[in-house]
Specification:
By secondary structure, the protein is mainly alpha-helical. The protein has seven helices and two strands; from the N terminus they run ααααββααα. Helices cover 51% and strands 6% of the residues. A hairpin with a 5-residue loop joins β1 and β2. α3 crosses α4 and α4 packs antiparallel against α5. The longest helix has 24 residues.
């Protein structure tokens, strides 16, 4: 007899579904299936994003660098601005914690109630770790990590499809 969990999973097809991937990324990855395409998906205009005013100088520089990169990949749009700002803000926090830890070290010495010396991890280590996880996750969302980038094959506007080029030349 089937377990309750197994029967529940069989009855709920969405129970194991992953997050939705935008059609543009599916197209670039080569995984777009017309039968699964959302014909009513909003189309975002590709444009160069402007950094929000609240970012610190490091985050602003990183924002501008990544915005240019995403624009060159033809996958940036105005709707990405907040997510990119969060990514670059977390990046600046990561870098700030990294610099702090270079100066003060990753652990500090303290004495417990019995007078014994203990070494504890600095609070900045936890902040650094959380910021890194957030940065890595957001970079993956934008196709900016080696593994996520390997699943994307971007073509510039002026690049001709190799199959069309072959057919035109030999046709």
């Amino acid at each position: 007899q089937e377990s309750t969990l197994l029967s529940t999973l069989k009855n709920k097809k969405t129970a194991m579904a992953g997050k939705k991937i935008p059609t543009k990324l599916k197209l670039l990855k080569g995984t777009l299936k017309p039968s699964r395409e959302n014909k009513k998906e909003p189309k975002a205009e590709i444009n160069l994003l402007k950094a929000p005013d609240y970012l610190n100088p490091l985050a602003e520089k990183k924002f501008n660098d990544l915005a240019q990169l995403l624009n060159n990949m033809q996958i940036s749009s105005a709707s990405d601005k907040d997510a990119l700002a969060m990514l670059t803000d977390m990046y600046s926090i990561y870098r700030e914690m990294r610099e702090t830890l270079k100066k003060v070290g990753f652990v500090y010495e303290t004495t417990n109630q019995h007078g014994d010396t203990m070494y504890r991890s600095r609070p900045e280590v936890s902040i650094l770790t959380d910021a890194w996880k957030n940065v890595r996750s957001m970079m993956s969302e934008f196709g900016l990590t080696p593994s996520s980038r390997s699943r994307v094959s971007a073509h510039g506007e002026n690049e001709e499809d190799p199959l069309n080029k072959f057919i035109t030349k030999n046709g």
